[in-house]
Design brief:
Layout: E1 8-13, E2 23-28, E3 34-41, E4 54-58, E5 63-68, E6 80-85, E7 102-105, E8 121-126, H1 144-158, E9 162-165, H2 179-192, E10 199-201, H3 212-224, H4 230-235, E11 240-243, E12 250-253, H5 270-283, E13 290-293, H6 322-333, E14 337-341, E15 354-355, E16 363-366, E17 375-377, E18 380-382, E19 391-397, E20 402-408, E21 413-422, E22 461-462
Parallel strand pairs: 4-22, 8-9, 9-10, 12-13, 13-14, 14-16
Antiparallel strand pairs: 1-2, 2-5, 3-4, 3-6, 6-7, 8-19, 11-12, 15-16, 17-18, 19-20, 20-21
Helix pairs in contact: 2-3, 5-6
Length: 463
């Protein structure tokens, strides 16, 4: 009898920095043909709340590779990478280190932390709930309400400290002025959800579909309440800032102030840009993270499209507009910022999510959408609604880095190939030394309610 060798995993890193997952994972079947599913794991089992990294088809034997995208992260709790052979997605009970067909131990020099650092705070980053009035007619967002309800369940389950939204809370339609109805639906869904922590919203182009001076911006201020900050509401302006209490990190919420079509006209008034520049000068060099929450990506500059060929003709802000040029100049001056945009609805797996314009600007993070995610199929945008396809980020802030964990908000699953690391630093304002070893809280199980079908966008399968 000749026993076949055990399958193996090899990992070639493209970035030697601690926590960076970018590189090539190779699985060699050693004659044990089949499909292998890759997972991040701790010392005993796959990380709870994470979907597989990818599946590699080795039905003909031999070896196969999967490339982790640039800027992706090795999760904070990951100790190992495991490969499980299965004819279909394995159930949770079989995704353990003991039952894995191949196990790779992450070197200590690549692990994100040594177990003593603690997360300072977390927040959710979402965009485009785009609640449409029931009379909208086109049926473009048939799952808008369902996806928002499930997203709020996921955020409650993940116990984020607060949530930031990059805009398009509502949809409206040209001329029908249905903002009041849509904001009421939004408020009702929030009131009935298990999520009870703050949500801070930026306004997007759909908040401006009707006349912005008389309907759009006032409706946004009244409908969201800007988290009921009295002085902000009284100011009558849709842009504002908050300070995270543990660290003093800065969150700046910008607002589109022009027209619905973001590639036309002026979107940022001089008053808003003066306000932004004043804040950036004030906070420059204070050692705190600066997050800028904004709706529209800039076509051909930063995350959200292919830079030289924007994926969708009328979505990006026009980088040749005077106001956008000034915004770009500020982002090239104050590189310590993290800009979070939405607007495109493009799925995170298209990998247009992270950019610092080759080190020349602030970091830009592209968000997908709670409602109406658009898929990239053979280079073409597919707008077909898919139940269960709803995406955002769970953001974890540490002393020495920020993790943007891409997540399917419907299924409450972190997507490893859409999770990124930004090596920015901050610190607690009043750090407290524990008097006794901290206890470990087991992770919370994800919601049990699931649709009858999975979304058609699946983790990458490598032939």
């Amino acid at each position: 009898t000749v026993n076949a060798e055990s399958p193996t995993i090899a990992y070639s890193y493209s970035n030697s920095k601690r926590g960076f997952a970018e590189g090539t994972i190779t699985v060699d079947s050693k004659g044990n043909s089949g499909t292998y599913y890759l997972y991040w794991a701790d010392d005993t089992k796959a990380l709870q709340g994470y979907r597989e990294i990818a599946s590699i088809d080795l039905s003909s034997g031999g070896s196969g590779k999967y490339k982790m995208p640039a800027q992706t992260v090795i999760p904070a709790d990951a100790k190992k990478l495991i490969a499980v052979k299965s004819s279909s997605k394995p159930n949770v009970a079989n995704v353990t280190v003991d039952k894995a067909n191949a196990v790779y131990s992450i070197p200590s020099t690549k692990k994100l932390k040594d177990g003593t650092d603690k997360m300072l705070y977390s927040f959710a980053s979402v965009g485009d709930p785009q609640l449409a009035n029931d009379s909208y007619g086109e049926g473009r967002y048939p799952y808008d309400e369902t996806h928002l309800i499930k997203a709020l369940e996921t955020l409650a389950n993940r116990k984020v400290d607060f949530t930031v939204s990059s805009g398009d809370t509502v949809n409206d339609q040209n001329g029908n002025q249905t903002y009041a109805t849509e904001y009421k639906r939004y408020q009702k869904i929030l009131a009935e959800s298990p999520y009870a922590n703050p949500i801070y919203e930026a306004n997007g182009n759909h908040e401006l579909w009707a006349s912005p001076s008389t309907i759009g911006i006032p409706a946004f201020i009244k409908g969201t309440g800007l988290d009921s900050v009295k002085e902000t509401i009284s100011a009558g302006k849709p842009y504002f800032e908050i300070t995270e209490p543990v660290t003093g990190d800065h969150f700046i919420f910008m607002a589109l102030e022009g027209t619905f079509y973001t590639d036309e006209g002026t979107q940022f008034t001089k008053a808003q840009l003066d306000w932004l520049e004043g804040l950036l000068k004030k906070y420059n060099g204070d050692g705190k993270n600066i997050f800028i929450i904004e709706h529209g990506n800039i076509a051909g500059w930063g995350s959200g499209d292919k830079l030289t060929e924007p994926y969708y003709y009328d979505l990006g802000l026009n980088k040749n507009s005077a106001d956008v040029k000034r915004f770009i100049s500020l982002m090239e001056t104050y590189k310590e910022c993290v800009i979070i945009t939405a607007h495109t609805h493009l799925e995170l797996s298209a990998q247009y999510n992270y950019s610092d314009n080759n080190g020349t600007s602030a970091v830009m993070m592209h968000n997908s959408a709670i409602g109406g995610v658009r898929r990239l199929v053979n280079g073409t945008i597919d707008r077909t609604p898919v139940l269960g396809l709803s995406e955002g980020y769970i953001v974890e802030v540490y002393n020495d880095c920020i993790l943007f964990n891409g997540i399917n908000l419907y299924f409450n699953e972190i997507m490893p190939s859409c999770s990124y690391i930004i090596p920015f630093t901050t610190s607690a304002i009043n750090p407290v030394e524990p008097t006794e070893p901290p206890t470990t809280t087991p992770p919370t199980n994800p919601p049990t309610t699931e649709p009858t079908t999975e979304p058609t966008t699946a983790p990458t399968t490598v032939p």
